[in-house]
Amino acid sequence: MANVIVIGAQWGDEGKGKITDLLSRSADVVVRYQGGVNAGHTIVVKGQTFKLHLIPSGILYPNTDCIIGCGTVIDPQILIAELDQLKKLNISTDHLLISETAHVTMPYHRLIDQASEERRGSHKIGTTGRGIGPTYADKSERIGIRVLDLMDPDGLREQLEWTINYKNVILEKLYNLPPLDPEEVIEQYLGYAERLRPHVVDTSLKISDAIVRRRNILFEGAQGTLLDLDHGTYPYVTSSNPVAGGACVGTGVGPTMIDRVIGVSKAYTTRVGEGPFPTELHGELGELLCDRGAEFGTTTGRKRRCGWFDAVIGRYAVRINGMDCMALTKLDVLDELESIQVCVAYDIDGDRSEYFPTSSRKFARCRPIYKSLPGWQVSTTECRTLEELPQQALDYLKFLAELMEVPIAIVSLGASRDQTIIVEDPIHGPKRALLHPDGTPATLLSA
Ligand code: GDP
Ligand code: IMO
Ligand code: MG
User: Fold this and answer.
1) CA of 263 to the centre of ligand 3 (A)
2) Is the pTM of this model over 0.85?
3) Ligand 2 centroid to 394 CA: how many Å?
4) pLDDT tens string 410-420
């Protein structure tokens, strides 16, 4: 048995969908533990592209149970559209289970998310506009609607009549928006409830049953470490905990049950939305990364900001997540470059620092200190073993692994399942902390 958490080590879109799909081959259960339809996870199998927002990336394997855990927020309309889309493609969704205690995104959440972003003006966060922040805010304020409320028509009616009248005051008085009709929303959501009912269970029981039976569970993170509400670049973050610690809270599993944490990182960096980004490239090079990496948001279609690899945040992600090994994606995007920069430290007001600062104002003042490495300028997309990689690419990987003190167990060289090098078994191979008891750093070629 191995219970594994897959997390994003940067600002999201690292390729978690591809890596989760790849590892799902040996998983019995795949669980999403936080976030909602702000996520967009892309899987490419035999030339066919699947874009998932809420459904776990294990869904393509018919014998893998997929669970949407209690720490997520669920927009039923989009979830149902996802179910329909998969059905059209002849992908079974019978093995999808939804937590009774996950919170539900309502129309007023989306309206408030979008209106509050507009009101913030230059202080906006650049959210996906999917109502994620307001849904989690209602959860904390203890006025949220949960999936189990949806399943109880009388209770839902009573709860929503009160809540919608309360939210209408905010919509009308604060944002000058027309009020919502409670009856209309109730009818709409009762319809969604019937559609989702067959999937709704106490998922924590299912997961604990799977643990007892020693089945392999894969916890799929959404977003990334730097978007974490507590550990990210606050306030430019999402409203949940994408870090590995979030997997326990968001599913109802004790930390003693977790065997591995695998971080996913791009071979460079991207970010969508507002907030500081020290290694961002504004000129031609940024455009080149964007073009070669097809860096447009899976959920909103927004152009992703692109920049060099930042090993300071990489090291931070290793620490905050207790990362055992890393999957490095999109190495192929760097194929054409003559030279490649890696941020090894920051200059903060004239002082060198190798640590990610807790203050976002300080983070905005960080200037990257780069180390330049030679590019390889040949295509890597067909490489399937380390030996086939050009020496400069191997040196690049080794340099990153040494800087972050984490072994790179998987290298991804294209969007397809098969465009992957498995350097060492990410699930059963040696763990980071055990690699070098003498204290020497972990390297790519650790085995
Ligand atoms: P996620 O949110 O972390 O699952 O990542 P996204 O799916 O939003 O974005 C990653 C994008 O990169 C998707 O379009 C993937 O198909 C694509 N991708 C994943 N791995 C690779 C890779 O190694 N090389 C290239 N060129 N594309 C990749
Ligand atoms: P995946 O799972 C990249 C960003 C938004 C914004 C901030 C807050 O595909 O990696 P929100 O709508 O969550 O309140 O927006 O977080 N964001 C993402 N960026 N990938 C994602 O998900 C993201 N989900 C949210 O762009 O900056
Ligand atoms: Mg994404």
Assistant:
1) 15
2) yes
3) 31
4) 999 999 999 99
